[in-house]
Structures are given as C-alpha cells and as structure tokens.
Specification:
- There is one protein chain.
- By secondary structure, this protein is an alpha/beta fold.
- The chain has one domain: 3-Layer(aba) Sandwich (Rossmann fold), CATH 3.40.50.
- Helix content is 27%, strand content 27%.
- The protein is built from 6 helices and 8 strands.
- The longest helix is centred in the N-terminal third of the chain and has 13 residues.
- Bound molecules: S-adenosylmethionine.
Amino acid sequence: MDYVGRPGPSPVLAALFAAGTLRENDRILDLGCGAGLDAVALARWGCRDVTGVDVEPAHVAAARRRAARARLGHRVRFVEADACALQDAFGEGAFDVAWDGLLLNNLRGEDEARYARSVAHVLARDGLLALQFRVTKRAWERGAEATSPALERWFRFGPPASTLIPEHTGRPRVPPYARVAVQVGVRNARRA
Ligand SMILES: C[S@@+](CC[C@H](N)C(=O)[O-])C[C@H]1O[C@@H](n2cnc3c(N)ncnc32)[C@H](O)[C@@H]1O
C-alpha cells in the first residue's frame, strides 16, 4: 500500500502542541507514522526526540526521506515496527507521549488488546496517549469515544473527546460523514 496521507500535519496535533500538551522536551512516539508528516512536523516545531514507527517498510523509507529533505534527521528517527509489539523494539517507559493519528482505527479484536499492552509498556508511567480517530457524525453525536475494554485495561481515560474536525481525505467523493476526533488525557495507569 502506498499511503500518501494528508497534505500537511494533523491540525489536531498542531492544536495539542500549541496548547502545550506535547512539549519540546518530550520523548514522542508517532504510532503508525505513515510517510512521516506528523513526526517531521513535530521536529520542525522544535521537538528534539521524535520517533515514528510503521509496519510498512515503504512508509518508513518515505518518512526517512522526508526527514532528510527537511534536514531534521537529528531530531526524528523512523523505525520499522509493529505497534502491537513495541516491546521488541523499545524499552519499558521509553516515551513520554504516544501520538496515534488514525492507526487505532485500523486495528480490530485481538490486535487492539495487543496494541494497548504494547503502547502501555513503552510509555512512561503517567505518559500521555493522544488518539486521533475516525468517527461517523452520528456516532459523534451519541458521544463516541476511543475507549474500549482493551484500552481501559491499560489506560485511565480523561474527559471525552473534545473536538471534531473535517477529515481531509484528498478524495472529493468520500462520504461527508467522515470526521476525525481526538481524545487526550489518556494516561498510562498500569503496568504488566
Ligand atoms: C491511516 S494511516 C495514518 C498515517 C499517519 N499517521 C497519518 O495520519 O498520516 C495508518 C498507518 O498505520 C500503519 N500501520 C497499520 N498497522 C500498523 C501496525 N500494526 N503497526 C504500525 N503501523 C501500522 C499503516 O502502514 C499506515 O501507515
């Protein structure tokens, strides 16, 4: 799959950074980083320790090229890794913040449980998991959250998702109900 992504970094991520939810000194993990738009943007905004992971070798290669072109390779690195098995690649508590820009949407069943355990392992205690996820307008109006029993086993959830933005798909005929929302304040509460 050749994932091209949005034309620019996530506006949700930009808002979190502007609000000080993510800080320049945080060790930040971008889960399912795709072609590296968000991770490289974080480095450009001043973050000094950014790591993007993706299972697709072609995406990791594209992300590395992006960082090299931006001359930000000293602040951001890209690793080919499965977000559901991060224990294989990183130590316990290796990151302060994990940013998920639409990866969780792709995971189902057992993978979601593996993801939750894996991310909890590599996040510092009280580290922040920020989730940007897709919801339908209808689900949003019913109060959709990114929570699930699998995630709640490892993370303490804060207030419900707090914003809703139109999703840029780059495809004019994509259904108008496509939206992305963010849930923050999701703190790593437990350890294996
Ligand atoms: C919808 S794309 C989002 C990419 C990027 N975060 C963005 O917002 O532009 C989902 C990405 O997750 C990656 N992915 C899917 N399953 C994964 C897994 N188990 N571990 C790591 N990355 C995964 C895909 O290869 C893809 O690049």
